[in-house]
Design brief:
There is one protein chain. The protein is mostly beta strands. It has two helices and ten strands. The strands form two sheets. It has an eight-stranded antiparallel beta barrel with strand order 1-2-3-4-5-8-9-10. Helix 1 packs across helix 2.
């Protein structure tokens, strides 16, 4: 199997992403490298532990990530309230997050999302006044709760979330 080679100069430094709470640094790197690198890693891990089947998505009612999550956090003293609606597609996370933590908040479609075990990383695009930015959330799921970090323009904060 050929594993695609990646040019490390093509992506920005992930030094800040490596500091995410509880998530392995390799997961943060994989989120930025794309699906091919993550798939290669998952296939290698599956082969090492006796050929774990990586086919097919987990049933929606059994999947701990699918559904609506209400996040509360802070970045540099500023409160963050977000409502995210997630859907797993294999090792990828799709969906959207809404401003203010409300069902009718402004929606932002996920631009990336990676799931590895109980670790998740996702991003979406937003604007503050006229400046675009892309917050990165890194979380660890524990049943119907999740805790993790938020990285926004070089500033780090923390969040806690519950699934409805």
């Amino acid at each position: 199997m050929n594993v695609p080679t990646l040019n490390p100069a093509a992506k920005p430094s992930l030094a800040q992403s490596d500091r995410t709470v509880g998530a392995p640094a390799s997961l943060a790197r994989l989120a930025h490298r794309g699906r091919g690198a993550l798939l290669a890693l998952l296939l290698a891990v599956g082969a090492l532990v006796g050929g774990i089947a990586l086919s097919g998505p987990v049933a929606a009612q059994d999947d701990p990530i699918n559904g609506v999550w209400n996040l509360k956090g802070k970045v540099e003293g500023f409160p963050v309230y977000v409502r995210c609606e997630f859907e797993r597609h294999g090792d990828q996370l799709a969906g959207l997050c809404r401003d203010g933590g409300y069902a009718d908040g402004t929606p932002h479609t996920l631009t990336s999302g990676v799931i590895l075990g109980n670790h998740v990383i996702w991003t979406y695009r937003r604007h503050f006044l006229t400046r675009p930015y892309e917050p990165q959330y890194t979380g660890i799921i524990d049943g119907a709760t999740m805790k993790g970090t938020i990285l926004v323009a070089g500033h780090e904060g923390h969040f806690a979330a519950t699934r409805q």
